[in-house]
Amino acid sequence: MNSILASAGASNVSYQLGQNSKNLQKSVQRLSSMLRINSSADDPAGLALSMKLGMSIRKTEAMMSTVSNTSSFLQVQDGVLGVADDILQRMSELAIYSKSISASSSDRAAYDEEFQDLNAQLSGMLSETFNGMNLFTDGGSTTINSTQFEATISLTGQTIGISQADLGAVTEYVELQNVLDTAAAALADTAIDNAIINLAALRATNGSEQNRVNFATDLLSVNKLNLEAANSRVVDLDYASEMLNYTKLGIIQDSNIALLAQANTRSENILRLLD
Fold first, then answer.
1. Domain spanning 46-234: which superfamily?
2. C-alpha span between 98 and 188 (Å, rounded)
């Protein structure tokens, strides 16, 4: 039997309509932002995890920048060492020319003038810098002795060492040499050979450090990629799934509106019978 209490059905439909409207609004927000989590209420645990992952990503990016600067330091250093090698090779040629019995005193004077100019250029490289930091040290010995710096390359605190090469162990061999006569040229030639041996050791050290820094860059890049993927799985929206949910909520919304209209009409009809 119909009763005016049938309006309770309309109240229930109205409640369901309100709940569905909130869900529909949340779905629209997700679709517009392309994020599954738009507020802490959406997924408290997921948001906390995403914040931690985001912090790790930002730290990794900062470390990548640091390691990139470290790589640049070593590349600039190797560039200078490469020029030093060219200078020593030319100085060796001048020493050989001066040792020749066919060279006149004026020839040797000309050779020595260029030799001393190159010597000065080589010594001047000791003051080369990168971003205000000295690339080289002048240990004042004929053995390789490099000053080490450390750079952090991972979130676990792993570090690598990079060197301020002791270019003084190269320049010291040749700084007092000359090629003004045959005997001096012979001594200079031997000194240059020793300088080149030390320079080769410096470049080998530089090369090994560059390789490790490159591998460190690869490690950080992989870590960043994996962290971003993990964060994406937590916060990013499954667009296809959410579109399906949005469509379903839209259908429910339309149905609830139709049912509410019918419930209200039914109550009105009962009231007419009482008139």
1. f41 fragment of flagellin, N-terminal domain (1.20.1330.10)
2. 10
